[in-house]
Amino acid sequence: MIQPMLCQTGNLKDLSRQGYIGEHKYDGTRCLIIKENRIVTLQNRHGIIYTHRLPELVTAGMDIPGDFTIDGEVVFINHETGRIEFTPCQRRCSTSDFARVYFLQQQFPIVFMAFDMIKCMGENVTQRRLLERKNLLRNLLATSPDALKTIRYVPHRHNLEPFFEEVRKQEGEGIIIKDLNSRYQHERSYSWLKIKNWRFEICDIAGYTPGQNARHGLFGSLVLARNGRFRGCVGSGFNDRELRKIKDMLTDAPKISRPFDIREPYFPVKTSLQVEVKYYQATENGVLRFPVFVKTI
Fold first, then answer.
1. For residue 268, which of 100, 110, 170, 207 is within the disulfide window of CB 3.0 to 4.6 Å?
2. Which of 173, 196, 219 is the last residue of a domain?
3. pTM (2 d.p.)
4. Domain final position from 168, 196, 224
């Protein structure tokens, strides 16, 4: 298994850092394209092999000369809207049945956003500076125009604050800022920082899931709703005082029948309690991804 380099979490103040470049943050699945002795292997960040799940990446990798290891993100781009959607990508990457793989390949063709290299022409380039590695990557991909349809080079920007503002206005995921002199580290590093474009929303509380372990006797997460539709569950961002206060309010609230199925046990309640949450993005079904509790309303 090859451990990819991972980001630490940054904030808006980090956009003023000197000596950093910015790249788009993509809402997809991290993957390495490894080619050795004309054999292409695809590996995700946890070491799971995706080779048979994403055959178009294997074909594109075969079209690029030499041995290499390219780091990047698998994404699905909706050609009608031009927007990246996570759920189709997740379906592609989680499907291993051959017949299903072929069907989903036709329905949800993916592309690979290549942003770094670990090996180039068989040489380990992890000790080279980031910009050197990106130049190697761009030059390598340029040798195969056909592969560029599926494996796309990720450019960078130096003006971080205007770049983030552009991404925010486009409702993008955010950006990754990177030390332009950094070496490739097979671990989580402060040389790479993710600056997320958080969205905020006020939601109704439709219920709560049972608490476990340290939250036994409290609640696990709050079931969120907006305009009568399920918006997801939020279980992070609470301090101990907020957990106890909200639990008391939920315990006193009238119990009702379940307004919707969330595919896990929960206690539905009728309450006027609302919470503000921040979230990463909403799925095509309107479910908030990675919601975090901000405050009660």
1. 207
2. 196
3. 0.83
4. 196
